[in-house]
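Supplementary notes for students who missed Thursday's class. We covered one full example, reproduced here. Read the sequence, then the structure, then the short commentary at the end.
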Amino acid sequence: MAEAVAGAQRIRAAPQGRLARVRQWFGRAGSDGHERHTLALIGKSTLAAAVSWVIAQDVMAAQSPAFAPFSAVLIMQVTVYQSVVQAVRYVGAVAVGVGLQGVLGLLAGPHLLTFVLVTLAALAIGRWRPLGSQGTQVATAAFFAFSTYVSATSEAQRWSQLGQIIVLVLIGCGIGVVVNTLVLPPLRYRSAEYGIHTLAHSLYDLIGDMYPALREGKLEEERTRHWRQRASHLAPIVQQAQSSVRTAWESTLYNPRRLRPRHRHHTSFDGYQAVVDALERVSHQVASMTRSLDQWHDADDSRDYADFARGYGDFLASLAHIAELLSQVDEDRLQDQSRQLCEAAAQAQQCRDRLEDEARAGSLPLSDPAQPYGILMAEATRLTDEFQHTCDVLQHGVDEARAASTAPATGSEHG
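Structure (token representation):
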């Protein structure tokens, strides 16, 4: 089996144990993957919440200062544009909820009937489509407003505290947007590239942890169960990648980094949607493969088993190389990268064919459904096909982009 697959190869299986996994998670956070962006979002949300709390508690001496940090964290989004949109919707929802309580409280007083009427109205208005996902905040704000309204001792104090809730929400949302804009702004000019990078890197990290263990025959239950759990976490990353393609234009709106000279002139690559679709199918196949391996952790220790596991590890190493290349996709280098990807896909196909030949030569029961070999070979075939399709899609997009860029010049020559 080909051992020297291009790209960085992981030599040994990752150690197991809770502490070791925590170290591995933070190690992956150092790369441009899901873990890194998770840490960035946590850090920015913490900063926005702390600043909001200081202003609400120490500067304003508000009676309910928690509204400000809660609002700041709630509207922290992947893109600055979405932060602004969600902030506007959230402030609108809160204003409606507080306003309902103020009006109905003035008319009916702080009684149970008032609470019932406010709840009915808030739940109905919360379904208004323009409020989007923030519609539920209408009822939430109305409940908090009712509690504040009931605890107030005078009519003037009631209106003052209701107005303070809206002010605190405005402060929290404003600080959240400012922090998201100025601190590590999530510029995704090539939002589709970002989605591919994150998803492909997550696939690379998972497959990259699997193939050294297979080569060493380390398939204990704790390890395979952990792979299966990590594979199940690919689903939200896939959704994020799909969202990044659909909303690529949002990343430059209201973002100061787009004014830099290096971000002003870029072309777009429409094939990214097809690439992300293909990677989504790859992630499903990887999840299916980890389920099969998890069911195989107690397989026998025969020589055929060890040889097959080692060969399967070599095959996965070839797939890890493809995922690594996809995690480095750059629009300016797509022509060279697509060629490298096609070569890597061809090498993966050779590894799969060699794995099947060796399995048949060793008389493994590939057709026995009670044994894992046939199932894993089927997974290998599907994974190879999906990765090959991903590379083909990228190459096709590059060819189309090249043809489109040369079409005007060709036309002018004939003219």
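Commentary. The chain has a mean pLDDT of 80. The longest helix spans residues 372-414. If anything here is unclear, bring it to office hours.
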